[in-house]
């Protein structure tokens, strides 16, 4: 199974869109994941955002707590260590994180349900650096959805007006160092699936990401340095009736000699517009996809946030 995550060069999208779409679709169908090399996200933008994130996580706990919006479901700002759990898991994951969301036009109808991202005054470059990163990942994600559309025999721009104001989130993740090495086989983030349409993930500084293949085997995902990992979320799974599956994945604890190092990660969760009605594509049902009741992206999101403990039932 070593070739399941063979990198797909982004340059192919510029020369042969259908060939790129076919490779991406095949990888999604097999594992729910794909590895893209030569991505267009700017290295300086990445470095600025990562630097700002590290400065933020070094702040005292009481300072970070000022940015914690528990009542708002922690959809923006800071979430403390040990708050989120995987669906069906009672034990919280060993992480803290920050959420940056979309800036909405003043007249947007989504303002009622999408909060502003709080401004971090203690880290001068934080707001600008993290939002610049958000915008680059948002743009690239929409480009990748054009390839997904071609694979699904849809017009290339089919997703464009369905995600342009989506409740997408840049998550800045920090897994703190572990002074006492954890037992082998334990996890930092328990097995879970993502809620959204697609997730874009730049390579973390420390290894640990594993994907559960349909054979029952856990496969390590170790992308090259210039690569980006993309995976299907539950919303894309539901839209396609499972033809493009949302695959279970986890972050395992490191070997003892690496446990004392922190792990940083920056997943970007791309979402549909909140009022988009998710119902199965006819061509996916013809292919054997599973039919489920229609549900709006916002209702589906809230249902899942309750399941993982970020919103109280």
Structure summary:
The model has no long low-confidence stretch (mean pLDDT 88). The chain contains 9 helices and 15 strands. By secondary structure, the protein is α+β, with helices and mostly antiparallel strands.
What average pLDDT do the residues reach? 88
H/E element sequence: EHHEHHEEHHEEEEEEHEEEEHEH
What is the global morphology? Answer: globular
Number of strands: 15
CATH class: Mainly Beta
Coarse structural class? alpha+beta
Q: Span between N and C termini?
A: 41 Å
Write the CATH homologous superfamily: B-lactam Antibiotic, Isopenicillin N Synthase, Chain
Q: Can you name the CATH architecture?
A: Sandwich
How many domain modules?
Answer: 1
**Number of helical segments?**
9
Q: How is the main sheet built?
A: 9 strands, mixed
| Portion in strands | 15-25%
Can you give a write-up of this model?
This protein has 313 residues and is of the alpha+beta class. 29% of the residues lie in helices and 20% in strands. The chain has a single domain, classed as B-lactam Antibiotic, Isopenicillin N Synthase, Chain (Jelly Rolls, Sandwich). It is built from nine helices and 15 strands. Strands 1, 2, 3, 4, 5, 7, 10, 12 and 13 form a nine-stranded mixed sheet that branches. The chain has a four-stranded antiparallel sheet with strand order 6-11-8-9, with no helix packed on it. It has a two-stranded antiparallel sheet with strand order 14-15. Strand 8 and strand 9 form a beta hairpin. Helix 2 packs across helix 5 and helix 3 crosses helix 5 (126-151).
